Amino acid sequence: MASAMKELARDCKLFPDKWTLALQASQYKYPLPVELDRIREVRFIDTDGTRIPLHYMAEDNYINWTDPTDTESEPRYYSYPHYQPHIFEFYAGAPPTADYVLASWLTTGRIRTVQDSGINFGRTRSGLRVRPGCVVQNRTDKSFGYVEYLDITTAKTSGTATSATSTDILEDSGENFSTDSVAVGDIICTPSTGKVLAYAFVIEVAPGSNNDQLRYSDIEGQDGNGVRIRRFESGDTYKVGKATEIRLWAGRPVPAGTRVAHAGWDHPGLRQGATNDFTVSATKATITGTTFTNTTVTGSSTSGAEEDDVAIASGGSHGFVSGVDDNELTVDKWIGGKPSAAETVTVVEADKYQVEDKYAGERQIWIGPPASSGASLGSENILMSGARVPRIPIEDDDPIEIPEDYEQPLIACSKWQVADLRGIYNPAEIDAFRTLYKKEVKSYGSRVDRPPNNAPISPYRNRKRTARSYGRRDQTSRGIAFDISDRT
Question: Are 331 and 194 contained in the same domain?
């Protein structure tokens, strides 16, 4: 019955809804809401508030005829492939509304290392973890590299694990993790110095009574012999803090088909012959005597700064420069939170990056051409209409709602589902049940597409009728009438 209710809800589009998203500059891939089942229409809302329909483009045409690096002021088309790698949205705490971001900029130039002082790579919107083998895209020079491990720029504390350390607890009996300001979403790395062999994610701080324990999950790493590390051990040295670094695999790209130690690294090379180095330029301007709003910094001379630079505050927050005036810079948002007054700001050119999961497990919508500038802070300029996924609640006393007048197609669908599951019917008989259901549901499926006779419906006249008026042309068997004019 549950399967039949879901099938009927999808075929008759019983759960119409709408969703919105905000365009990002130079971005063409966006995750679809998990509750969205089918897209009906996609529109772009321009600066005047006009809703402009986007045209669907088949996935193969999108790939063959478009260049995702060519940007325009307004999109014109969209596509939605079945599944793509998940694009991580990292916690950025950017006031007032952008807590998570799909892409960010480097704050320090490093060889094969993404270092971003405004991001916490251990905290994502989806809850998915950055694992070895995930892909880091350099959006500036179009190169990419593979994640080897996460790291910490400045640890909140370090030490040696003690005897109560277990498969999900790290204990240091001489430490107080609460006063160390360790937070959920931080990472624990071992060893405390040198190359990280394993890292795990903090999911609870001080679960015991002495504030000397951290609960962790999803440990990733290998020892020197290539054996997977599954837990921290008593005696391991460790460090814990905010994950601000992604170290990339330093090995040489291998020919396709060659077996390597880590899944996902079997790749013939980096695109366009580029390296997987990520760079930040020399300082172009320094601003002191600063005051900040959510989207500006005001202070000493901004001479040397240009649009499309990155302004980095000494506390670690940074913003993409969208405007330059005397003694003031406009930024899109402060990734990492609004800086405190008097922080020094340096202005640089920096590579932009994005991180994708190594598995193609997320539905996405592609919107093109990519926008040359993102939506203003807090606004959403893509509107999608469609149908929600019909979900069956766990509790039997709270079933999915199917309108009573859909009883006949529901019965027909239930017979088909039972025939398919019982295992006593041959394929021809099962197909006959399916054909009967499709025939029954055909007259119901278009109800959501148009009102009766393609005329406007008056919701104020949608009322129960008396026995005298029952049976009108636009009346259901339950006595619900759909008025299509002003007649009584």
Answer: no
Question: From CA 20, how far away is CA 135, in angstroms rounded?
Answer: 27
What is the span of the domain harbouring residue 258? 105-278
Q: Is 190 exposed, middle or buried (0-12, 13-18, 19+ CB in 10 A)?
A: buried
Cα–Cα distances in angstroms (integers) from residue 362 to residues 31, 35, 82, 185, 475, in the given order: 7, 12, 8, 22, 43
Which tens digit of pLDDT belongs to each residue from 453-462? 545 555 544 4
CB-neighbour burial class of residue 4 (10 A; exposed 0-12, middle 13-18, buried 19+): buried
* 345 and 245 within one domain: no
Out of 227, 244, 278, a domain closes at 278
The pairing of beta strand 77-79 with beta strand 55-56 = parallel
Provide the CATH number for the domain around residue 341.
2.40.30
For residue 387, give the amino acid letter.
A
Q: Does 250 lie in the same domain as 340?
A: no
Residues 263, 315 within the same domain: no
- pLDDT for 26 beyond 90: no
**pLDDT category, 180, cuts 50, 70, 90?**
very high
Could you tell me the end-to-end alpha-carbon distance of the chain, in angstroms, rounded to an integer? 40
- Average pLDDT, stretch 421-450? 78
